[in-house]
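Bumping with the actual sequence this time:
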Amino acid sequence: MESRLALAVFVVGLVFHAWGMTVGWTSRNLPGGEFRQAQTALSTHWIKAEQNFALAYPTPVLGKPWSLPMEFPLYQWTVVKVSEVTHWSLTKAGRAVSIACFYLLLPAVFLLLRRWQVAPAHRWLVLAVVVTCPLYIFYTRAFLIETMALMASLWFWVAFERAVGDRSKVWLAVAVIAGTGAGLVKVTTFMLYLLPAGVWALARLWAARRQGWKTELAWMAAAVAVPFGATLWWLDFADATKALNPLGTFLTSANLKEFNFGTLAIRLSPEAWATKARIVREALTWLPAMLVCLLLLPFAARARWRPVAACGLWFASVLVIFPVLYEHHEYYYVANTLLLLLAMGLVLVAVLESRVARWVAYGAVAVVLIGQGGRYLAWYYPVQRAISPGGDGLTTSLRTLTNPGDVILVLGQDWNSMTAYYAQRRAIMFRNDVARDGARVEQALADLGSDKIGALIIVGEPDGAQWLIDRAAARGLGPEPLYVWRDARVFVPQARRTELLHSLLENDFHEVALAPGVEPPRASLAGKWFEMAAIHRWQRKPFVGFQPAPVRFFASFGPAMDGSSGQPMYGAHPVTRLVFALPAGQHTLRSALQMSVDAYRLDLTDAETTDGVEVSLFRLGPGEERTQIGTRHFDPRHNREDRGNLRPLEFTFTLEAAGEVELFFGPGPAGKDTRDWIELGPVRIE
């Protein structure tokens, strides 16, 4: 009975986890460590685009040569192949591979628990703790190598113990393969799980110190020789490849040593530990769940105290070994959170094995599982559920305005790959310190050879900005920005400036605006008839408040729109004629009219003031035939009800057959258009 109940609890937790994988599935953005996800996705995009499965795979963010290999590209290659087979987008394929790796690590956890002599029913409860973990619901579907590295490391741990302990060649082969994969995909995760495997190995060697230790050592060496050798080979290859890039040398192992391993000062920093404590408290699990497990430990079976303490110690060890990485990157906790969950799960197992009342023990299990699920819903779910096309107005504009083969230059975003990935362009990201190094900048630009620069983006006011603008101008870019996005200025090739200005005006890029001093072309739309379909999209903006939009129009002074009041007001100064194509049936035109007080001030003479505007609606027939449907003389000077803002306008009419109607604005009875500054509010014809 207990086994069935435990299995049911695990299945419910697994279903909850699987549901979490579907949340925001169609979204193209990459929430959670987005800069790192974008780097992985960028490499994957170009591997697929170029069918480039070389070890020196492309990560085009720091100029030529475009390769900056960090991890061995097993994850990226797998994502490309899944995308090609399923025809999924790379985003979906990347998530699917991460999810599959997470589910494939669960059997390894089950086998570890069996080796620790945890009863089958209780193993399901520990796995339930794992699958309801908020961090593992959120990051399992990230475009990251993390779950693949964790899967390989766990299977190495299991296989290493089984190979050595059982003298099994099959498990030895698994240990070699999994260990090699773990070391190549992410060495920091592999190092973490070498710790418990190493402690177990030392204990066995000590026990066999008088007899048999050489055999033990031989099996151990056989299990780790290839993984260690492959890892060292890859690190050497990756460093040699990075060193070929004048802007990428800071990413070599030697230059990243302090960032990867930190310093004593960082290890002792109260601020750093406060940040790590916040991540543990907010992102990994539910804090009260951890406290419940901690409070129950004294009442738990003492046989479990040692593995609980060991898992807790291993969890905390990497916070000391890699202090900077775990301070700045929440996603790094994918590697070690499993150990925290194992510690919590083993406490629950120990309580179930003790004399504590069963209702208390199972109540604690329920608190942990329900609490973790609730924490996911409160913390990660609101972020994950948002549906986004990915990127922003800047990246969308770059993808539209630049050519696929163009290179973009970026200063002010460090070497963040997000702009390059969402724009789907190769990039040279100039870090602020590099922008001041003239020789390295010149070398990076010279290495481009015949590759064209599609745009230069300057974010904020970094040092070296003007110098870089001048260098880009020497390669054909304009010396002044064409448009801005937030605090980013975008410079484009001078030869394409007019073309790109028109394209920019034709598209509505979020938060993108023309740079100060840039004016749209002044193509006159005044004094003659125009078909709406024949004018540019940006020239249609004055008609944004019309539903439906006119099919053609005539405006003596050209169409104009004022949005300063918070809603679009169309400038209908006489003579204005707006023609709408409508289906047969009954219709109602609703809008509102207003006129500036300065048009009808009482101190003006009759010659200086408006005499009102004739607003009429006509049914159009063959040739020049016009039948008046209704009319209104809008005259705020003489009619108090016409004064003020948004005075209602309404015409109801019936069309026996589909046809056209014309909304006409003409001068008042005196036939003059002096100060006829009439504005038409949003128009709805229903």
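The tokens above came from a reply further down the thread. The two ends are 66 Å apart (CA to CA).
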